[in-house]
Amino acid sequence: MSETELTGDNLFQNPYPVYARLREEEPVAFFEGTSEYFITRFEDCRIVGSTDRVFVPSDSPNRPEARVMGMPNVLSMSGEEHELLRQGIDENLTVEAVRGYVGALTRPVVERYIAELEPRGEANLTADLFEPISVRCIGDFIGLDETPNETLVEWFRSMSAGLQNVSGDPEVYARLDRAVADIDAQLGALYERVVESPDRTLMSHVVHGGLPAGQTRTLESILPTMKVIILGGLQEPGHAAANAATGLLFNPEQAAAVVAEPEEYALRAFDEGLRWIAPIGVTPRVAAEDFETAGVTIPAGSSVAIVMASANRDPDRYDDPDSFDMNRKKKPHLAFGFRPHFCSGHALARAIGEIALEETFRQLDGLRLDDSRPITAKGWRFRGVADLPARWDA
């Protein structure tokens, strides 16, 4: 089997050779594994993503998102219902709001984990540093401050595996179901707390926000949306930071620039990491009517996957797109999706990632790749460097 063949296994192991072939030969390709059309070129993704009159959120119970998160959720909603829910979600996630609290939320966590790790002199930076930072900061922000890191990591890993379970492996779904039951139980307890005593947690904003004073959303109505937030939010800042750190360590001159001037270059590196390896690689839609793009007619009712990870490496958009280069000419990427479903947490994710990279490259002297074992990455709907072996001068 060629590594460029459109199969679930090829996508999971390394989707980029598959995407490169599709962009060149079949930019709108039907994938039998998930029964959806893949849109892989940047311009076609932009057109489909911005034509929300035609390409509407998918609420099909046959979608993998329905199996994992439940329906309806914030990604499957549209119109006033979606707008009001987003008011609650977004209230404390504006750029201005994030600037006001991200330091207090993030820096103590980053400092603690780096201090614990520094004497070892070596680690898997993903599992030992960036994932713990991400799940702790976002877990606390949601209101899950008493839920251990290990539990939060197991939640998003189980859900991510469920979304990418093209073969229908029953063990993957059994693991998913255990995680979902735990999520439901813990969110149920948190729901009772914030209904009685509203606070500044994201859970409280989702329960009360965008509604007349005194009204609340039911637990059942918000559980699917909270699972969307848990799945994307817990992993995206950490995996994006790990992806960016990988790119930097492959390019020592760029890494040296971050070490010398972290405040100048950390966010630039984080954003390039988002383009280079998009943590969330695909966003789903359904065609409300026949639509032609790239010479292919997508029939009404068809499921569509806007493959943002492929668009972000389109050579018609970016020079040398497969290389990490934080100094490349700045062009917006698609890693955060499209309005009106543009990622609510984009400002928080970028701020957490910036701080994590700043302090990691500032404090771990002589940070470099550990050549004794390989770097490994996996996934396509969600992708990240799972094992980033590194050493430093302890």
Protein model, in words:
The protein is α+β, with helices and mostly antiparallel strands. It has 15 helices and 12 strands. A hairpin with a 4-residue loop joins strand 1 and strand 2. It is globular and about 60 Å long. The strands form 4 sheets. Strands 1-2-8-5-3 form a 5-stranded mixed β-sheet. It has a 3-stranded antiparallel β-sheet with strand order 4-12-9. It has a two-stranded antiparallel ribbon with strand order 6-7. Helix 6 crosses helix 7 and helix 13 packs across helix 15. The protein has one domain: Cytochrome p450, CATH 1.10.630.
Short structural description:
The chain is of the alpha+beta class and 394 residues long. It contains 15 helices and 12 strands.
Sequence-ordered SSE layout with sheet pairings:
Blueprint: H1 8-13, H2 15-25, E1 28-31, E2 36-39, H3 42-50, E3 55-56, H4 64-68, H5 79-90, H6 95-117, E4 122-124, H7 125-142, H8 149-163, H9 170-196, H10 202-208, H11 219-250, H12 252-260, H13 262-276, E5 282-287, E6 291-293, E7 296-298, E8 303-307, H14 308-311, H15 346-363, E9 368-369, E10 376-378, E11 384-387, E12 389-391
Parallel strand pairs: 2-8
Antiparallel strand pairs: 1-2, 3-5, 4-12, 5-8, 6-7, 9-12, 10-11
